[in-house]
Automatic annotation (TrEMBL):
One of its GO terms (molecular function) is phosphate transmembrane transporter activity. Keywords: Membrane, Phosphate transport, Transmembrane, Transmembrane helix, Transport. Its main location: membrane. It comes from Rhodovulum visakhapatnamense. It is found in: Membrane. One of its GO terms (cellular component) is membrane. This is Phosphate transporter. PANTHER family: PHOSPHATE TRANSPORTER (PTHR11101:SF80).
Length: 492
C-alpha cells in the first residue's frame, strides 16, 4: 500500500471524525435547553406530589396539587427573570463569574425566603380586588389559579425574549384580570391600581437618577483627580459606609420586617449606626489594599469589587424575603380557601408552601437565569465594578426613598433603571468631554456627528424592548388570566 493512499485514508478519517464532532456539539447545544425543561417539569411534579403528601385528605386536594404546580412554575420563572437584576451588574463588571453569581444568589434568595419571607401574605395582591367581592371559595380558587398561571406564562415569555420584567406587576395584572372576570370591574380598587401604574415610571426614574448621581460623585471626587489612589483612600470607606447604611436600612425595612415590627425611623437609625461602624472598619482595610496600586482607573476597580459582591448577596437576600410572596401568595390563598372554605384578605403561609417558592426561585435561576444575567450585566451598557456598585447602591437607596414618600416601586424597574441611568450618564459625560476637546482640536481631527452617534453607550434596541415589556406587563397578564378564568368557567 503506497504512502499517498495511506495519507488519503487518514485525511478522510480526520474529516469524518470532524463531522462527528460537529454533530455531537450540535446535539449538545440542542439538548441542553431540554435538560432544563426536564428538570423544571420534575420539580413541578414533585411540588404537586409534596402538596398531596402534606395536606393529606384536604377537601379539594386536586385543586391544591394543581395550585402547587402553578406556584412552582411561577417560582421557576421568578428565578429565571427577576434574580438577574441583582446579579447581572456584578457579573457584567467581572466581579463575579456566572457560576459564582448563581451560587451566591441561590443561597441568599433561599435564605431570604425561608428566614425572613414572612408568615402572612395578602391573598389579593396589593389589595387591588376586594375579598368580599368573590364570595364562594370555588370561584376564588379558580380565579387565583388563573392569576398564578397567567402571571407565570407572561414572565416565561418575557424571559424568552430577553426582557427583565417585574414579577410583582405580573402577579398584580394576573389578579386584576382574574378578579375582574370573576367579580366584575367594580371590584377593583382603582386608586391602588393608579399607584401601581405610577410606579412603572417612578421606579426606573428614581433608580436611574440615583445611580447616575452616585457615578457622577465618584468621577468628581476620585476618577478625575490627579492622585486617584489618595482620593480613593479617603472616599471609598465613606462610600462603603453609605452602602452599609443603605443596605442595613433596606434589610431592616424590607427583608426583616417579617421578623421584627420596625418603622422607617428605627430602620434608618440602625442603618446609620451600621454605616458608621462599617465605614470606620474599612478605613485600614482600604489603605492596606491600595498599597502598590498604580495611579490609574483600573486600580480603582480592585477597591470596589468586594463591596459589589457583598451588595449583590444582600440584594438577593432581601429579594427572596419579599418577592417569594409573588409565587406563593396565591398558592397560600388557595390552600386556605380549600381547607377552611373561606376567603380572607390575609392568610398564613405554610412552611411547605414557602419551601416550594424558595427552591423554585433557586432552580429557575440555575437553569434559566444566565440569559437575563447577561442581558442586564453586559448587553444594555458596559459595566465595571465602579458603575455596578452605583447600580446596587441605587437599588437600596431608591427603595428607602420610595418608602419614605409612600410610593409603590418595583425592584426590577429600579435595578434596570439604574443600569440605564449609568449608561446615559456615561453618554452625557463622553459628549461633554468631546465638546471640550473640539475646542482645542482642528476641524479635521474632530469626531464626525455620525461617529458620535455610533458610539452611543446604551443599546437603544434593548432600551425600547424593555420599556415596551414594562408597559404591557399588567395589561398582558390581566388578559391572560382573565381569558384563562373565562375558559375554565366555560368548561364547567
Amino acid at each position: 500500500m503506497s504512502d499517498s493512499f495511506k495519507d488519503r485514508q487518514w485525511k478522510t478519517l480526520d474529516k469524518d471524525l470532524k463531522r462527528l464532532s460537529q454533530v455531537g456539539t450540535a446535539a449538545q447545544s440542542v439538548s441542553r435547553p431540554l435538560v432544563g425543561v426536564g428538570i423544571s417539569l420534575a420539580f413541578i411534579i414533585a411540588a404537586a406530589l409534596a402538596a398531596a403528601l402534606v395536606t393529606g385528605n384536604t377537601p379539594g386536594l386536586l385543586f391544591v396539587m394543581a395550585a402547587a404546580a402553578f406556584g412552582a412554575y411561577m417560582a421557576l420563572n421568578i428565578g429565571a427573570n427577576d434574580v438577574a437584576n441583582n446579579m447581572g451588574p456584578a457579573v457584567g463588571a467581572n466581579a463575579l463569574s456566572m457560576a459564582g453569581a448563581i451560587a451566591i444568589a441561590a443561597i441568599c434568595e433561599s435564605a431570604g425566603a425561608l428566614i425572613a419571607g414572612g408568615d402572612v401574605v395578602s391573598t389579593i395582591s396589593k389589595g387591588i380586588i376586594a375579598p368580599e367581592s368573590v364570595a364562594d371559595s370555588a370561584t376564588f380558587t379558580w380565579a387565583m389559579m388563573a392569576a398564578l398561571l397567567g402571571a407565570a406564562v407572561w414572565v416565561n415569555i418575557a424571559t424568552w425574549i430577553g426582557a427583565p420584567v417585574s414579577t410583582t406587576h405580573s402577579v398584580v395584572g394576573g389578579v386584576l384580570g382574574a378578579g375582574v372576570a370573576a367579580a366584575g370591574i367594580a371590584a377593583v380598587n382603582w386608586p391602588t391600581m393608579g399607584g401601581i401604574a405610577a410606579s412603572w415610571v417612578i421606579s426606573p426614574f428614581l433608580g436611574g437618577v440615583i445611580a447616575a448621581g452616585m457615578l457622577a460623585f465618584i468621577k468628581w471626587k476620585v476618577v478625575y483627580r490627579d492622585d486617584k489612589i489618595a482620593a480613593a483612600r479617603v472616599w471609598v470607606p465613606v462610600l462603603i459606609g453609605v452602602m452599609s447604611a443603605a443596605f442595613a436600612t433596606y434589610l431592616a425595612m424590607k427583608g426583616l420586617k417579617h421578623l421584627f415590627d420596625i418603622g422607617l425611623g428605627h430602620a434608618a437609625l440602625i442603618g446609620v449606626l451600621v454605616g458608621v461602624l462599617v465605614g470606620l472598619v474599612s478605613v485600614p482595610l482600604i489603605r492596606r489594599q491600595s498599597v502598590g496600586l498604580e495611579n490609574r482607573n483600573r486600580s480603582l476597580k480592585v477597591m470596589f469589587t468586594g463591596p459589589l459582591v457583598i451588595s449583590a448577596g444582600l440584594l438577593s437576600f432581601a429579594h427572596g424575603a419579599n418577592d417569594v410572596a409573588n409565587a406563593v401568595g396565591p398558592l397560600a390563598a388557595i390552600v386556605h380557601a380549600q381547607q377552611d372554605g373561606e376567603v380572607l384578605g390575609q392568610v398564613a403561609i405554610p412552611v411547605w408552601v414557602m419551601v416550594i417558592g424558595a427552591f423554585g426561585i433557586s432552580f429557575g435561576l440555575m437553569l434559566f437565569g444566565p440569559k437575563l444575567i447577561r442581558m442586564v450585566g453586559s448587553q444594555i451598557t458596559k459595566l465595571n465594578p465602579v458603575r455596578a456598585y452605583c447600580v446596587a447602591l441605587s437599588a437600596a437607596l431608591t427603595v428607602i426613598v420610595a418608602s419614605w414618600l409612600g410610593l409603590p416601586v418595583s425592584s426590577t424597574h429600579i435595578a434596570v433603571g439604574g443600569v440605564f441611568g449609568v449608561g446615559f450618564f456615561r453618554e452625557w459625560d463622553a459628549e461633554r468631554r468631546w465638546r471640550r476637546m473640539d475646542q482645542t482640536l482642528p476641524q479635521a481631527k474632530r469626531l464626525a456627528p455620525e461617529e458620535r452617534r455610533r458610539r452611543k453607550l446604551v443599546r437603544r434596541s434593548h432600551f425600547m424592548t424593555i420599556v415596551a415589556a414594562w408597559g404591557i406587563t399588567v395589561p398582558a397578564t390581566a388578559l391572560l388570566s382573565g381569558g384563562l378564568f373565562a375558559a375554565i368557567m366555560a368548561l364547567q
